[in-house]
Amino acid sequence: MKKLKVWARKLKRQLFVLYLAYKDERVPWFAKLFTACVVAYAFSPIDLIPDFIPILGYLDDVILVPLGIMFALKMIPKEVIAECEIKAEEMMKKGKPENWVVGSLIILVWCIISFWMIVKLSQFFT
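Request: output the structure for the sequence above.
Response:
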């Protein structure tokens, strides 16, 4: 159980590193795009495979997120990662970053998708 807690803390720290690296101008645009997707997916309350599905629901969190973090870290310059690791430690002591603008955009996107699906389903059944 202790190893699992250490692994989870390391994963959380790496997400903070990616969150900070995304904002750095030395990171290439394609790395920023991929990093933004990884961080958004990790912090999103909506998963690709819902958690209520036995076993498979948690596999995306255990496999997809760590793989995404690993690939994103490989795309970012080492000096940026080193600087962001120091900042991430400080940030973890203070708590999780709050970004209501991004959260609102995610909710808006999901509302649009839901509305579109309702319209399409109503057209299908009429």
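Residues 78 and 84 are 10 Å apart (CA to CA).
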